[in-house]
Amino acid sequence: MNKKILNGIMIFGLTSVLVGCGDEASDHEGQIKIPTSASYYEGENYKEVMADLEKSGFKDIKTKAIEDLVTGWITKDGEIEEVSIGGKTDYSEGQWVAEDEEIIITYHTFENDESSESNSSKDEKDSSGNDEEVEEVIEEEPETLTRDNSKELNAVLSLDYESDPLAKDFAKEYKGRLIEFDAHTAYVNRHGSYDTRFDYLILVGDYTEGETPGPNFQLRNVNYFDLNLTGDNIPDPFGIGHNIRITAEVVEYETSSDLFLIDPVSIQMR
Fold first, then answer.
1. Considering the domain boundaries, does residue 119 fall inside one?
2. Could you tell me which of 147, 228, 189, 180 has the C-alpha nearest to residue 13?
3. What distances in angstroms separate CA 52 from CA 141, 195, 225, one per listed residue?
4. Average pLDDT value for residue range 60-66
5. Is residue 263 domain-shared with residue 158, that is, in the same domain?
6. Which residues pair with 49 in a beta bridge?
7. 167 and 242 share a domain?
8. What was the pLDDT predicted at 137?
9. Phi (first) and psi of residue 163, to 5 degrees
10. Which residue in 199, 168, 182 sits closest to 14, CA to CA?
11. Of 195, 268, 235, 247, the residue nearest 48 (C-alpha)
12. Segment Disordered: which positions (predicted)?
């Protein structure tokens, strides 16, 4: 096993959530232990989180929609903004709360079609009663960055060391932008205690036993359907050793673990 994959596995081990065993104390009758911290829910799909909270035993769960999405390309439909428990959004994993505590899941979605109906017409009448053609303004998405059109991305994908500060600078400069490159799945493990959510170590180029250039990219806390797999011979499950063409959103470079976090938009099998 090459050094980069070994380092990635060690990092995954350090960043994984450890789940303790043992009986709970008897003095928490009528209470439930919060399964994760508040920040964990940010960016997750509200339906999945609602199901997890219901499974944990919470009874009073409400949802609140923020109708602010235009394209759903960067922020996805149903993506969580915050989850409050008993009016608080700064709770910690393992904290005990009443089982009937009110939970409000606030998430992003598209504007109701009826409220935006007036924007769908190109022709409107001016104050004099004459028909006036209104020019439709189409907001174009920023170009996806590739080796061919971005010298900066090409440099990052060619780094000799995953901890090179250039990777951190790139992540900060292009946070929220889409990048596309050839890669492979080098390692995968379960995310925390979940059975259907995973962390993937993604490395540049084809799968090989030798060293590969570029950062240690990570897809963190994703399920099979988040991967948006395309192409021939789509595997199920999606494991180690697959050569892929990945398009993903830049999230951040995590200095403490030397992991370059990205969020998958599509993964094409090669």
1. no
2. 189
3. 34, 12, 17
4. 92
5. yes
6. none
7. yes
8. 60
9. -95, 10
10. 199
11. 195
12. 109-149
Bridge partner residues of 33 (DSSP): 96
Residue 248: give its domain's CATH number: 2.40.50
Contact 34, 97 (CB under 8 A): yes
Half-sphere exposure in the Cβ direction for 193 (13 Å, CA) = 9
Domain that holds residue 180: 142-269
**Stated pTM of the model:** 0.55
The percent of residues above 70 in pLDDT, for the chain, comes to 79
Q: Counting Cβ atoms within 10 Å, is residue 106 exposed (0-12), middle (13-18) or buried (19+)?
A: middle
* Residue linked to tokens 């907001």: 139
- Residue 242's nearest CA partner among 187, 196, 180 is 187
Question: Structurally, how many domains does the chain consist of?
Answer: 2
The residue-averaged pLDDT of 31-58 equals 87
Asked whether residue 3 is assigned to any structural domain, the reply reads no
Residues 250 and 173 in one domain: yes
Query: Using 50, 70 and 90 to split pLDDT, how confident is the model at 111?
Result: confident
Q: Which residues pair with 268 in a beta bridge?
A: 230, 245
